[in-house]
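Dear Dr. H.,

I hope your travels went smoothly. While you were away I took the liberty of generating a structure for the chain from your last submission, since the lab meeting agenda had it listed for discussion. I wanted you to have the full record in hand beforehand rather than looking at slides cold. The sequence, exactly as received, is reproduced here:
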Amino acid sequence: MSLIRTLLVRREAGIAVMIVLFCLAVGAFRPQFLTLDQLRIILLLVPLIMIAAMGQMMVIVARHVDLSIGSTLGFSAMVSGMLYRFDVDWFGFDVPWWTGIPVSIVVGAGLGLVNGLLIQLFRLPAIIVTLGTLSLYRGLTFIISNAKQIDRQWIPSELKGLSQTSPVFGTPWIIFIAFGVALATYLFLMHTRMGRQIYAIGSNPVAAPLRGIKVTQVTLVVFTISGALAGLAGILYASRWGFVNPSNTGSGFEFQVIAAVVIGGVSINGGVGSVLGTVLGVLLLGCVAAALPLLGIPGTSQAAIYGAVILVALVIDRTVRRQGIAGFKRVQP
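The corresponding predicted structure, in token form, is as follows:
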């Protein structure tokens, strides 16, 4: 009973219950949903969201929000795609396939740093700044690409191979990369001084400077990391889908990421959230995305059902936590 009460108090319990109930409900109508092949499909749907959600989680925990994350992904992916397409013209030789990975990460980190600087230097709300840079970065993507898509033939086969297979049970490398980023984020938040400072700023931004926390420095780091992870997601987008389009790549991506983070129990008021909860939120969205086509639901209805599942998940999460806390209090001496 003590173990059950401990689990119920945790914010992740609600979303875990929701995942189980959703999978069982879909499996009752479509038994193939509860197979290993379907699990592989779900896991292939979540890496990009999971990687970007790790950065977004830190931003929201610090009591900010990054609405430009989708445009950052698109711009970073386009820069890397153009590097592959024009490498001979620019450098006179074929650049190694892995070059696009650090380039995309650095470009994304630079865009994230710009967000942080605008927020801290001018004391502007993050939601307003990133709403502006959302359009700015998307416009820059069109400008640098001349509104032209990077087609599949320009993406190196080795890069595309990251999303196809690996020596480990044939599981694509992109899945291991996503969970590796989640693990690294957990270690950073739980076992470093700056990680604890992020939670302190989100919990009480007024008291944080009085405790010697350098709020500006931490904020810049948080937005830079968010941008870097969006850049990583950008190059992996090219790997996963084999093209980069200036209008479609990353469009609306920020809302999926924010939804996963909030569903995973990260408080929009800052100071509360966990990597495990965010991972579970991402997995729920992956289950929903995989289930809707399997159930034969038309595309025009998918968005409504997607939103409904998000709301139900939030209600179940809140109910489970309230009951868990109430039960915990009843057993106190």
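Two observations you may find useful: The chain has 15 helices and no strands. Residues 299-330 form the longest helix (32 residues).

With kind regards,
E. W.
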